[in-house]
Amino acid sequence: MDLMIAAIASSRGLSLSTRNSADFRGPESMVEIAPV
């Protein structure tokens, strides 16, 4: 599910804000991940 969220953010040119950036390891090159 986390990769789907990252893919949607990437396809829309959005950054991703999350409290658990560890769940989004890997797609850093696709989308900007901003820990909150």
Describe this structure in words.
With 36 residues, the chain is α+β, with helices and mostly antiparallel strands. The chain has one domain (1-33). Helices cover 28% and strands 17% of the residues. The protein is built from one helix and two strands. The protein has one helix at residues 2-11; strands at residues 16-18, 33-35. It has a two-stranded parallel sheet with strand order 1-2. The protein is globular. The model has no long low-confidence stretch (mean pLDDT 80).
Shape: globular
Biggest sheet features = 2 strands, parallel
Uncertain runs are: none
Cα-based radius of gyration, to the nearest Å? 8 Å
Number of strands: 2
| Major sheet: arrangement of strands | 1-2
> What's the mean pLDDT score?
80
Strand content range: 15-25%
Judged by helices, strands and strand pairing, the structural class is alpha+beta
Order of helices and strands: HEE
Which percent range fits the helix content?
25-40%
* Total domain units: 1
Distance between the termini: 19 Å
Per DSSP, the total helix count is 1
Protein name: Type II toxin-antitoxin system VapC family toxin
